Amino acid sequence: MPKDAHNKAAEHHDKAAKSHRTAAEHHGKGDHKAGHEHSKQAHGHSEQAHDQSTQAHKKSEASSK
Known about the structure:
91% of the residues lie in helices and 0% in strands. By secondary structure, it is mainly α. Helix 1 packs antiparallel against helix 2 (32-63).
């Protein structure tokens, strides 16, 4: 279902955003080691979000034909 695919993509986007905010907090406090770890997590979530978004787009196109 395209809706499920879009929901999965949205979940990954939310996780990426949370990790980005947490990384920014740590960097702001001078805790660059923790900030870097959260940045890496954010990057991973962003990649997953992109993959899920691509799949969702393909499923949406296929269901509209």
